[in-house]
Design goal:
seven-stranded antiparallel beta sheet; 2 domains; Jelly Rolls; mainly beta
């Protein structure tokens, strides 16, 4: 089917040699995603090996646990609902005081064509609760996560019910934070819930329906960077032909 749906448990687990991190790649080019790579990284108690250093931007989002990210000699607090920006070439360590794992969603984006001038201010961490909520359609809303050059990170909130079929110009990878949903895409339907990982190809019509009684919350990262609410409706007749 167009797009891809999986879960952390379905991806192969890779452990760092002598480190604290275990990584599962959930979405990458092998699943049809051209420009983004989504990973779930679990840090056991202790201090991780040095990470990063590549040419791509990395966006992190804390799912559970608490600790610190050590970047350029500075510590940044990590707690649930915190987004983190790691610039190309930057290297960092993750400190987990325990006793529980520190779990993050990591998305590797593209290498920026034009890097910001060194020293230009950029927020490394963003706490979602401190971000303003913006409308996305009639009854949905979203909050921006960290700022990046090539991609945008956000968390969307979907109330019970179903929106009209639509598509986006951007390519997106998403992680379901909570709630129960039904993804309609490519003439098929897939159940999604907390821990589901989704790839939305650009210009692919879809509906992410909330079939539960609680808010469906989704962490999204998309390329190119822009406005998460930029959506284009699909005529019902055209949608029905594809179902």
């Amino acid at each position: 089917m167009p797009g891809h749906v999986t879960a952390e448990a379905e991806a192969e687990s890779r452990s760092d040699a002598d480190g604290t991190a275990t990584t599962r790649v959930t979405i990458d080019p092998s699943s049809g995603c051209r420009d983004l790579e989504q990973r779930i990284v679990r840090f056991a108690p202790g201090r991780s090996n040095m990470r990063g250093g590549g040419s791509r931007e990395e966006l992190l989002f804390v799912l559970s646990g608490r600790g610190a990210l050590v970047l350029d000699g500075e510590e940044y607090r990590l707690e649930p609902e915190t987004g983190v920006y790691v610039a190309p070439g930057a290297r960092y360590e993750v400190e987990n005081p325990g006793p529980d794992d520190l779990v993050l969603v990591s998305v590797l984006a593209l290498e920026p064509a034009n890097l910001r001038p060194r020293g230009e201010e950029r927020r490394v961490t963003v706490r979602l609760t401190e971000q303003e909520a913006f409308p996305a359609g009639r009854d949905r809303e979203f909050r921006f996560g960290v700022d990046a050059d090539t991609v945008t990170q956000f968390v969307g909130s979907i109330p019970p019910g179903r929106a009209k079929p639509h598509y986006h110009e951007y390519e997106e990878v998403a992680y379901v934070l909570g709630g129960e949903g039904l993804l309609h895409i490519g003439g098929e339907r897939r159940r999604v819930s907390a821990g589901s990982c989704i790839h939305f190809p650009p210009r692919e019509p879809h509906i992410l329906e909330n079939v539960g009684t609680e808010t469906l919350r989704v962490l999204g990262v998309f390329h190119p960077a822009g406005d998460p609410s930029a959506a284009y409706n699909v005529a019902e007749s055209e949608w029905e032909e594809k179902q």
